[in-house]
Amino acid sequence: MSRGAAVGGLTLRLAGALLLLAGAGLGALTERGLLLHRVAAERHGGQVVDADDASPTADLRGRMVRVAGPLQVARPPRDAQFGLQAAVPVLVRRVEMFQWREVNIGGDVHYELDWVDHPIDATDFRHPPGHVNPGPFPIQGARFEAGEVRVGGFRLDPALVRALPGSETVSPAAAQLPPNLAASFSRAGDYLVTSANPRDPKLGDLRVSWEAVPAQVVTVFARPDGDTLAPAADAPDGKGYDVQVGERALVDVLPDVPTPPEFVTSRRILAVLLAAAGSLLLLLGQRRRADGLLALAMGAGLVGAIAAVLWLGHDLQLMLAWLGLAVLGAAVAAWRVRRAG
Prior knowledge:
Blueprint: H1 3-42, E1 48-49, E2 64-70, E3 72-73, E4 78-79, E5 84-85, E6 90-105, E7 108-116, E8 142-145, E9 149-151, E10 154-156, H2 158-162, E11 168-170, H3 179-182, E12 186-188, E13 191-193, E14 206-213, E15 217-225, E16 228-230, E17 242-245, H4 250-253, H5 264-285, H6 292-311, H7 316-340
Parallel strand pairs: 1-2, 10-16
Antiparallel strand pairs: 2-15, 3-9, 4-5, 6-7, 6-8, 6-14, 9-10, 11-14, 12-13, 13-14, 15-16, 15-17
Helix pairs in contact: 1-5, 1-6, 5-6, 6-7
Subcellular location: Endomembrane system; Endoplasmic reticulum membrane
Membrane topology: Multi-pass membrane protein
Keywords: Endoplasmic reticulum, Membrane, Transmembrane, Transmembrane helix
């Protein structure tokens, strides 16, 4: 063999080895990226279907969904006692009473009147005389939820409605008060008060206000059950859902879940082709006849074997699919070698 032929053969073998390694590496990186994403997502309830592919009519059993969009309120909450209704997911009534409270600063105790949202028992004061509070509230605080809240075509489970973030003040309308309350309450800014003079409240006066979760754009991560999104009760993270204000990408909702590789099918095909090209160059470097089918079988067998090992113990179906490709590649390669020999 001439020196030139020897150098040429060595060059072909070196190039073939590099392409073979490139194909094997690309295949391994692709499957490892998918595997890391899958394992991390499972901690939060399962594989994730992003908003663009999620709809209540799709088969999403056992998966998690990220959906973003404006909240749609079908049956707004209503505070019937005060005649107040708002087109929001959640309406909260807050009741305060003007009461004595004890202030202790470095052992120095003094008393002052202030608005407090719960009854204060004056018998616990260091000096109760002259600071007695009225006792239980005649009107209680309350929370009212919409009969149906949707986002992106999905209904929200009550647990997700209660988890909706954000707050805004809802101004009362004194004209809507029932007659029995209109005689006692008047409007003072964003409050209804029983004070004869709102600027000079007296002991026992009541102040009622309302806050609401706004009908805003949110991103919801949860498990679909038909057309309803609900927390994944079996999620290893112990939560199984997330709700954030605004349109958030999956990496914002689940920052500990790595982004899966893009163009997975193309990357897999390219990995096999690179490995096949490397195998072909190795065959040529050994002065064997160029056999494209043998080279393709060798490349597919190598990439399939690596992928099958990576998915072993994580996804039986995917592992068997890659193992089948590896076995098929090995069988075809053995057949081509026997035929050539």
